[in-house]
Amino acid sequence: MGVTTTDEIAGTVKVDPERVCELKAFDDTKAGVKGLVDEGITKIPRVFHHPPDEYVKASTLGNTEHVIPVIDLANVGEDPCSRQQVIARIREASETWGFFQVVNHGIPVTALEDLKDGVRRFYEQDTEVKKEIYSRDQMRPFVYNSNFDLYSSPALNWRDTFMCYLAPNPPKPEDLPSVCRDILLEYGTYAMKLGITLFELLSEALGLHPNHLKDIGCAEGLLSLCHYYPACPEPELTMGTTKHSDDSFLTVLLQDHIGGLQVLYQNTWIDIQPEPGALVVNIGDLLQLITNDRFKSVEHRVLANLEGPRISVACFFSAGIKSTPKLYGPIKDLVSEDNPPKYRETTVAEYVHYFCERGLDGTSALQHFRI
């Protein structure tokens, strides 16, 4: 395909100059994948071509054999019996799937719809307006581009993204685009409240004090990534998002009705069906690290789709590159002589830096931190 190749003996990556030129030309348009679609292309550029996945045994959309648990949070604050049942289901889901969906989570459906509308409005603005804020500077309060790992990933994904940190220091309103400013800030408040509830339930699922994960800083940061996946003329050749696990403690995802999100379970790709009003929750790498592999950060991907645009908003509980120098390793209460620590201590910033440098290359960053 004329893409980057690996010299197995030297363990180095050979750079294909022609490919680098194609990547730069795409980046320089500042119009993203949506710009290609707006031009009316019928063949996708080769830099978006992905090799076939090794797990070809993917489930079909009608597969009901494996269904990600949908957990109702309606009475977790009032009814101790319901709370214990929810904790048991969250424990099981976190140890096996690494994924579950939640309903009655406390975020109004109107806020979910308003957020999807706001994201769509941003991407469907005039291209010249968006070009003004297109950037790869990760330290900006609002970052909009296509493929954060443009120059490091083996193949590009069919999506555009904007990101902003909503906590611990929410952006100033004037730093956000007016078309989605209010709903982003409002949703950040809701998401943080839900995250704290989830960390309490996860703490109890580990047999720890309800505040344990919150007190060690798992909920101190919140990063939102708002994705726009345009309809793709050749979805079989590319991916919406490459197979990866998340570099967070926890991720809460809002997806629209289109679908395409899949989780890898027993070497089979399982569809996570969109549930009206539900949010998808998944364990991140950092939570797998501090629980010493008790909770699983599972690989997942998003298919490219003939239908579109697909809108999704992922909220990552992590302060990322803006985190404190606090060290994280397996929680002392969860290790023993029979279950020694499996990971070295690291900071969130070090983990995230390593994750981002590698890009979405289809392998887990956790391996780098194993003892």
From TrEMBL:
Protein name: Fe2OG dioxygenase domain-containing protein
Gene3D superfamilies attached to this UniProt entry: B-lactam Antibiotic, Isopenicillin N Synthase, Chain
InterPro entries according to UniProt: DIOX_N, IPNS-like_FE2OG_OXY, IPNS-like_sf, Oxoglu/Fe-dep_dioxygenase_dom
GO molecular function: dioxygenase activity; metal ion binding
The protein's required cofactors: Fe cation
Domain Fe2OG dioxygenase positions: 218-320
Superkingdom to which the source organism belongs: Eukaryota
Family recorded in the similarity comment: Belongs to the iron/ascorbate-dependent oxidoreductase family.
Keyword annotations of the record: Iron, Metal-binding, Oxidoreductase
PROSITE patterns per the UniProt record, alphabetical: FE2OG_OXY
Oxidoreductase among keywords: yes
Classification via Pfam families: 2OG-FeII_Oxy, DIOX_N
Record carries keyword Iron: yes
